[in-house]
């Protein structure tokens, strides 16, 4: 049977983007029932929702009363996703009001509920909204952080509805059965590859695409975590709900990761960090001159993972064991297990996800295979599969270590 999804639509201009979300669901074999609010219908009419979903649409509890829609729709759903979730709608949901079909549905649903908020920054940041979001999260709902960008009118800021494709991915993960076992946890994920400038146009870089780190961030959001994603030169759309900090070099990545790690429960270093950087960055473009080129001298970059491990070791001695779990990644071409074990010990992390590089694995591909080594316990082999699956297993192992 097709998974049954209720798409709740709040009364905000971003309602038009929910049409795209609806298409993503219907085209991938989901049975979708759209439940808009009265105000949502002012932005996008009933006919659009009915045509796209192939089902009758109403905002009221008074239509088709004999089918008891105010109870039946919520009870039979496998997932309720509300996009856009307005400040008013989340306030009503948080307080248990039941003054339209959607809020009735939210009260009767016993399946996972995802809210994708969209509103002006001031409304999002208002203590009333923040308190309502906290209440909804406490009750197990996943409230995705809004994106930052252009809002209605001339304003820009936090409050934009995340990309429908990204909301869809979260919902798909939630439907796959991921639980909210990271709810209330703060996690930091680094992704991509650093670039070390030689001059204003050239750099030393690496092949990391950021796909694995983004999959980790997305999966953590779907499991309820508050995610900071430190992205080094990644050309992928922001995962819905993650706070994205963009960096270029290893030095910038270190600063961003250490700042976010201060109050984090988990840090996952999936980024490929350059071990060296040019001693000198030329202020102007290096010109081709006659004769031999000037050599480029390199200096060592700080080892961020090792620093995190060492800081935690010291904090533990003082009774402040943060972050609770530190995960490293390692790409190895040979002697994978022996090199991995030595690296795990050297870096002081709890888990090390070791990839074998080569044979079309790891860089830029949607698939990955790995062995996860633990500071204590047996290695876990992850067979070749989508990076999202690997991310799920890593979070399972992390969740098992959180007290
Ligand atoms: N890492 C880091 N800071 C660095 C280099 C690496 O935090 N300057 C992190 C990476 O994000 C990854 C882990 O360390 O999680 C292992 O990276 P890798 O490049 O395999 O390790 P290296 O210490 O550079 O070892 P190698 O000599 O094999 O390159």
Automatic annotation (TrEMBL):
Flavoprotein domain boundaries: 4-173
Function comment: Catalyzes two sequential steps in the biosynthesis of coenzyme A. In the first step cysteine is conjugated to 4'-phosphopantothenate to form 4-phosphopantothenoylcysteine. In the second step the latter compound is decarboxylated to form 4'-phosphopantotheine.
GO cellular component: phosphopantothenoylcysteine decarboxylase complex
Family: In the C-terminal section; belongs to the PPC synthetase family.
Annotated transmembrane regions: none
Entry note: cofactor: Binds 1 FMN per subunit.
Protein name: Coenzyme A biosynthesis bifunctional protein CoaBC
Catalytic activity: N-[(R)-4-phosphopantothenoyl]-L-cysteine + H(+) = (R)-4'-phosphopantetheine + CO2; (R)-4'-phosphopantothenate + L-cysteine + CTP = N-[(R)-4-phosphopantothenoyl]-L-cysteine + CMP + diphosphate + H(+)
Classification via SUPFAM superfamilies: CoaB-like (SSF102645), Homo-oligomeric flavin-containing Cys decarboxylases, HFCD (SSF52507)
Region (Phosphopantothenate--cysteine ligase): 187-403
GO biological process: coenzyme A biosynthetic process; pantothenate catabolic process
Span of domain DNA/pantothenate metabolism flavoprotein C-terminal: 182-399
Keywords: Decarboxylase, Flavoprotein, FMN, Ligase, Lyase, Magnesium, Metal-binding, Multifunctional enzyme
